[in-house]
Design a protein that fits this description.
Length: 187
């Protein structure tokens, strides 16, 4: 009898969780619920859920109440878990407003720095830009790591990290003696 209760309990938990998940996805993210699809999803879940409640009840009457409680708890836990995952996904940096602009600026700053790494003439002219023993260049590499970390980590301020990276590049360039870009002549 306990083995049968465990077997039907496992079937109940799995069927309830799967049915709750499928219905939540369809009703939340679908392009409007299709009545036939929802009906068949509910029907398919109930084909397992109802026997998982009734069969143990026939053997031991309190089992029905226990199984109903297990099913309701499973559905509630599944919904809570889904909402928690949705909140985590919503906090991802790439889903924030302005992320694409920040990522483009970040890439532009990295492209500026790559010129010092990849252009032999610039490497010879400004060796401090690639020498991490220089305090300003070491700060630049730390700012690069921070910006990359903030780009992929939820709960961080990516925009502020990119701003710090831009400032670190400017400071490193000044310390290395890189001439400031010429401003366009006023009209």
């Amino acid at each position: 009898m306990p083995a049968m209760m465990l077997l039907w309990g496992a079937a109940l938990v799995l069927a309830t969780a799967a049915t709750t998940y499928v219905l939540h996805r369809k009703l939340t993210y679908g392009r409007g619920p299709e009545p036939d699809g929802v009906f068949w999803d509910v029907f398919g879940g109930l084909v397992v859920i109802v026997p998982a409640i009734l069969v143990p009840t026939v053997q031991w009457s309190p089992a029905g109440l226990i199984m109903v409680f297990v099913g309701m708890a499973t559905a509630a836990a599944t919904l809570v878990s889904l909402r928690k995952v949705e909140r985590i996904h919503a906090a991802e940096p790439r889903r924030r407003a302005g992320f694409s602009d920040d990522a483009a600026r970040h890439e532009h700053i990295l492209e500026q720095w790559r010129c010092y790494e990849l252009d032999p003439a610039r490497t010879i002219d400004f060796p401090a830009m690639t020498d991490v023993r220089t305090a300003e260049t070491a700060a630049l590499t730390r700012a690069m790591r921070e910006a990359e970390y903030c780009k992929v980590t939820a709960g961080t301020d990516y925009r502020a990290a990119v701003e710090r990276l831009a400032e670190a590049l400017a400071v490193a360039e000044r310390a290395a003696g890189v001439p400031a870009p010429a401003l366009p002549a006023p009209r």
